[in-house]
Amino acid sequence: QLISSKQALATLSGCITSIGALLGGAWFPIDETAGMLKYLSYITPQYWYVGFMSGEAEQPVINICVLILYTLLIMLASAALFGRKSVVSKA
Predict the structure, then answer these.
(1) 31 burial level (CB within 10 Å; 0-12, 13-18, 19+)
(2) What are the phi and psi torsion angles at 44 (to 5°)?
(3) pLDDT at residue 7 above 60?
(4) Alpha-carbon dihedral 10, 12, 14, 16, rounded to 10 degrees
């Protein structure tokens, strides 16, 4: 079992969301940063969403396609993880 309590799940979820927002440019413009941080931002869905919503994307269709791919990947991963017959303890 990966996570043992609801509190641990909430903490992990908050950490992942915060790191994604930081890397995706939700808190500060990521294009002004240099080095590895800029390239790491490309792997987050937040980067593509912020680029689409801010209107800075030259080709917004690419942003939408990337977001759809992220959605499909997350759905497939969820189906694989939660489709198994496993017992989840209630904490």
Answers:
(1) exposed
(2) -100, 140
(3) yes
(4) -150
Domain ranges of the chain: 6-82
- pLDDT at residue 10 greater than cutoff 90: no
Residue for token pair 């209630």: 90
First to last CA, the chain: 12
Would you call 40 helix, strand, or coil by DSSP?
helix
- The three-state secondary structure class of 67 is helix
Q: How far is CA 74 from CA 55, 67, 78, 79, 91, in A?
A: 25, 11, 6, 9, 25
pLDDT tens readout for residues 15-68: 988 988 888 888 888 877 778 888 888 899 999 998 888 887 788 899 999 999
The pLDDT tens digits for 75-87 are: 998 888 777 655 5
Three-class DSSP category at 59: coil
